[in-house]
Design a protein that fits this description.
Blueprint lengths: L15 H22 L3 H16 L5 H10 L6 E2 L1 H8 L1 E3 L6 E12 L38 E15 L3 E3 L14 H18 L2 E5 L10 E4 L6 E5 L3 H17 L7 H21 L19 H23 L1
Parallel strand pairs: 6-8
Antiparallel strand pairs: 1-4, 2-5, 3-4, 7-8
């Protein structure tokens, strides 16, 4: 993937018929490069590069985060052509080229209450995990006409967005970066909000004084019960906030117990990655984050893809709960 020190990718010069293939190839190339570099420092740099993109564009999929950075490494905030006009009273400058991303392609139809797909998606689809199987609708005891109608994902198509630097007009609303400013009062308020988010996330949170805390490290997450349980040591609000977010990530991602150190090391990278994305989004200083990517050495490309997807999803969930 292109960085600020290398040439950016330009999908606008690619023929429309080949554009989707080129977009996928760019993502594949970046992930393949990450896999190849996992055991050296370059792998950590690549991984951190993606984490930065994920924190800036946390509402997007990991694929779109990579595509945005590949085409415009300097991008900080993106939106569609009409969204800039309608939501921000800004206009895309003449001659600016769009940043290509993936957009869900949907239809409105009756949704199966069991699997969420349209009735016509069942017949002949042997891979469909649904109690109705892959039979014809006229063989069902249920009447599809009585199902709730809704939006159903049928694939993806390309769309374009533009960075704020490509627009002009009314100033953007200022983002709340009070936590990053390091003001003690604001940091304490943010910590209170982070702690309150445990209810939304469905995670039990306990804060213990240094005298009460009897575990190694600064916090831990237990997942053996019905509800994930996080325990952290009380200390400096900023450091404590980062620990809680890290343990929240464990509670979301790792609800089963593991017995091997190798797997625990892999999961530590996932949790720290999700915490980095969420923490940066909230204005926390995450410069002390450590990513021991060598633990992923035996993971193939598909496993790495799955890890990136899971990390991004967990970070989104944490940020949404806190911002709520």
């Amino acid at each position: 993937m292109a960085t600020s020190e290398s040439a950016a990718v330009d999908f606008g010069d690619v023929e429309w018929d080949n554009r989707t293939d080129e977009m996928e190839a760019t993502i594949d190339e970046w992930i393949d490069d990450l896999v190849a570099a996992i055991e050296d420092a370059r792998g950590t740099e690549r991984f951190t590069e993606w984490l930065e993109a994920a924190s800036a564009f946390h509402e997007y999929s990991y694929k779109n985060q990579l595509l945005i950075r590949a085409q415009m490494p300097s991008a900080t905030r993106v939106a569609g052509y009409n969204a800039w006009q309608d939501d921000f009273d800004r206009h895309v400058k003449e001659g600016e080229s769009g940043i290509y991303i993936w957009r869900p392609k949907t239809i409105t139809a009756s949704k199966c209450p069991h699997c969420g797909n349209a009735p016509g998606y069942h017949p002949g689809n042997e891979s469909l995990d649904c109690p109705l199987g892959n039979s014809e609708p006229d063989e069902w005891d249920e009447d599809p006409d009585e199902w709730t109608r809704g939006s159903i994902l049928i694939g993806f198509t390309t769309a374009t967005v533009f960075d704020v630097s490509q627009t002009e007009g009314e100033p953007l609303p200022e983002l709340d970066c009070s936590a990053q400013a390091g003001e003690a009062e604001n940091m304490t308020e943010l910590l209170d909000t982070i702690q309150a988010a445990s209810d939304t996330l469905g995670i039990d949170l306990t804060v213990k004084s240094p005298e009460e805390y009897d575990h190694k490290g600064q916090g831990y997450c237990e997942t053996s019960g019905d509800t994930p349980s996080v325990v952290v040591k009380e200390r400096d609000p900023a450091a404590m906030a980062g620990t809680i977010i890290h343990e929240y990530a464990h509670g979301i991602l790792h609800t089963d117990e593991v017995n091997t150190k190798a797997e625990r090391d892999k999961r530590e990278v996932e949790a720290e990655g999700a915490a980095y994305i969420a923490g940066r989004r909230l204005g926390l200083d995450m410069s002390g984050s450590a990513f021991y990517l060598a633990s992923w050495t035996d993971d193939d490309t598909e496993m790495i893809r799955d890890r990136l997807k899971r990390i991004n999803k967990a970070a989104k969930e944490i940020v949404a709960a806190i911002e709520e």
